[in-house]
Amino acid sequence: MLVACGGSRDDFIGARVLDVCKASWPVCSEYAGCILGPESYSEGRFPGRGQVLVRVPEASTIKVSFYLEEVTAAGEETAITVHEEGCRARQRKASTGRAALDQMEKFGVFTQQADVTGVGDHLVEFDSDMQARYVVKVDVTPLRIQ
User: In which domain of life is the source organism classified (predicted)?
Assistant: First the structure.
């Protein structure tokens, strides 16, 4: 159904190292499978959900990016939830399955982002009923330099 456009998987990953996300990092009374940041990425399959920990040194934008492969169905919804440190607040960003694929076809990647003000560990959750393989990475950009 979809062939990735706009860049290759290798371009998307760059110099990052695979994290299989099989650990148990405590965050927000839950456990994230890994810590994602500028040095790492993970991969998996939709439909499904994932939880990662993102460390933020100051008020920042957390951008979650997916490179999609082997898409066989768009699904109804793909959502990313970014929690403030300690889970005192959260932002949920949802897209229809078609909108997520349209973004992927146009830009080569599907992204969602949220601004956070707290310093420390942030839980980032994602879930989708799409049928696809994905590569996920997280970028953190301080708000003061945007």
Answer: Bacteria
Measuring CA to CA, which residue among 131, 21, 126 is closest to residue 76?
A: 131
Q: Which residue has the tokens 């998996």?
A: 44
C-alpha–C-alpha distance, residues 41 and 14, integer Å: 10
Total domains present in the chain? 1
CATH number reported for the structural domain that contains residue 117 in this entry: 2.60.120.380
Q: What is the pTM of this model?
A: 0.90
Distance, CA of 142 to CA of 6 (rounded, Å): 27
CB neighbour list of residue 117: distance below 8 Å, 6 or more residues apart:
59, 84
Do strands 25-27 and 30-32 pair parallel, antiparallel, or not at all (unpaired)?
antiparallel
CA geometry: angle 90, 116, 128, nearest 5 deg: 50
